[in-house]
């Protein structure tokens, strides 16, 4: 059971369980949320209200993305990835439908403003 | 570039949005992969009948309407109405609903700052925050630095926010979860005895309800 050997070196934490770890100064810079970020937040709330998935499902997907995603993707980038994963799992649409639509969106124009649709 | 102009006439005089966040620069950067995913997911959900554009717009409006002013109203009421304060400390979800704020199903707990106790809230695991009363969390609340250090060296973290607490003040740190969230009831400043509830509301800052600050002095 080699996995148990690895487990013996494990401190019991997954990457997101960061309370009490060493870290640098708190970065104080912030930003107001862009429309695409607010839309992702709204989709998460609505999907929860409609029973498509739960906040636990969101967190499970976020935590499974791992530390590299936390360091390289923005907050709402991680959220849309997690929302999408849960929706695929729930059967709300297929991967093929998603890929096709993302390609189509890319054809609409080079900026979010041109590609965003009217929803 | 179709959008090389930069209008800033929407900037609030203090450089902050109504929800208390600094404005970001114009959103005319090249369309990103994740933005494409957001557009595609949203359109597919609408086409499949799961959500309507009106529901999404209404949800964004509700989000934009939530700001630290909601929490400040609750705090000022607690400062001026002892019976309300008792109900708030007993059950903050119910007391907030009493004032007309939608708290959803979550369990909200108000923790009271006094002369000898200072409370600080954090979510070490993710970004849980009393968003129904304060709006969306500031970016620093979601950073590795704040999440990691707030529970281990809160006094050092508070000093970075400009708050240097005397040694005799006990610091209590509260770690939130998705279902159970905290809000700090800051201590009412001295010299505010004659002020009305509305005047007091203006003294309550976002950070004073997170615990990384204290209310403004009159």
Characterise the protein shown here.
By secondary structure, chain A is an all-alpha fold. Chain A has 7 helices and no strands. Chain A starts with a helix and ends with a helix. The model of chain A has no long low-confidence stretch (mean pLDDT 90). Chain B folds into 2 domains: 12-65, no CATH class; 68-210, Alpha-Beta Complex (Nitrile Hydratase, Chain A), CATH 3.90.330. Chain B has helices at 33-47, 53-65, 68-80, 82-90, 92-98, 131-134, 144-149, 154-160, 197-201, 206-210, and strands at 107-112, 117-122, 170-175, 180-185. In chain B, the strands form 2 sheets. Chain B has a two-stranded parallel ribbon. The longest helix of chain B has 15 residues, at 33-47. The interface between A and B is large, with 67 and 62 residues.
Question: pLDDT under 50 segments of chain B (min length 5)?
Answer: 1-14
CATH class category label of the largest domain in chain B = Alpha Beta
CATH homology superfamily name of the largest domain in chain B: Nitrile hydratase alpha /Thiocyanate hydrolase gamma
Gyration radius over CA of chain A: 18 Å
Distance between the termini of chain A: 52 Å
Q: Which CATH class of the domain at 33-115 in chain A?
A: Mainly Alpha
Radius of gyration of chain B: 20 Å
